[in-house]
Design brief:
10 strands, eight-stranded antiparallel β-barrel, 244 residues, 2 helices, mainly beta, Porin
């Protein structure tokens, strides 16, 4: 139900952007038509970039989608805001811990097109906050340390893991190319690098044992500690979509 609600919200956001674009084009009348006849004339006004991620560099398929609405200042600079939905499975955090993340990024978008034409390169920066929609836990890591205490063999069994409750700020750098196919509509292909943080709690358990004269291990003490933790997550992914 949560995913359906998010998908519905993104569809409404996209349709709202489209309606705004249509109304903008109608009010500008013949001016837009004349401007679309040449790449050299200044183009300003509404813009939208709607994309999905077909694959990440780690091999995950269909990891999310996003839509951006904003204002095109001139032929080169555009500024706007966006929202999306992302889902990653077994994504590394730190110290080999992996977890599943469901995220809602809300952000500011600044993009620059250094050249205008049918085929145009694009660079962009997104900055904002990724809301954590689930409360994931990492896998449990186990470790055993052997030692000797006054000629008696000792053993400590450790286990630790993280549980995350909150998302965090993020920044994304994007480099791509758009291919114009009809008036203001273009196909868009890009590579993104995104870095963000998540935070929660770190849990550590320690079970101590001593080896008896019969060779059996006898428990001595058990301790459990909890601490606040923060992890940084980064990923490369491919984006594919449309621009208008």
């Amino acid at each position: 139900m949560q995913k359906k609600g998010l998908s519905g919200f993104l569809v409404v956001w996209f349709l709202t952007c489209c309606c705004f674009d249509l109304s903008f084009g109608q009010t500008t009348g013949t001016t837009d038509k004349k401007r679309d006849l040449s790449f050299d004339k200044t183009q300003t006004g509404f813009y939208n970039v709607t994309t999905f991620s077909p694959v990440t560099f780690s091999g995950q398929l269909l990891s999310g989608l996003q839509t951006i609405c904003g204002y095109k200042v001139n032929n080169y600079l555009s500024i706007g805001g966006g929202i999306g939905y992302e889902y990653f499975t077994s994504i590394p955090t730190y110290e080999d811990f992996k977890t599943d993340l469901s995220l809602l990024p809300v952000f500011i978008d600044v993009r620059y097109t250094p050249l205008t034409g049918i085929l145009s390169p694009v660079i962009a920066i997104n900055a904002g906050y990724k809301i954590l929609l689930n409360k994931p836990s990492t896998q449990v890591r186990y470790d055993t340390v052997y030692s000797t205490v006054l000629t008696v063999e000792a053993r400590n069994d450790y286990s630790d893991y993280n549980t995350y409750q909150r998302g965090g700020p993020f920044i994304t750098a994007e480099a791509g190319v758009k291919a114009r196919v009809f008036r203001r509509v273009a196909f868009f292909l890009a590579v993104d690098y995104s870095l963000w943080s998540i935070s929660g709690d770190y849990y550590l358990s320690n079970n101590g044992y001593l080896r008896g004269s019969g060779g059996n291990w006898a428990g001595t003490d058990k301790t459990k500690t909890t601490d606040k933790s923060m992890a940084y997550v980064h990923i490369f992914l491919v984006r594919l979509g449309i621009v208008f």
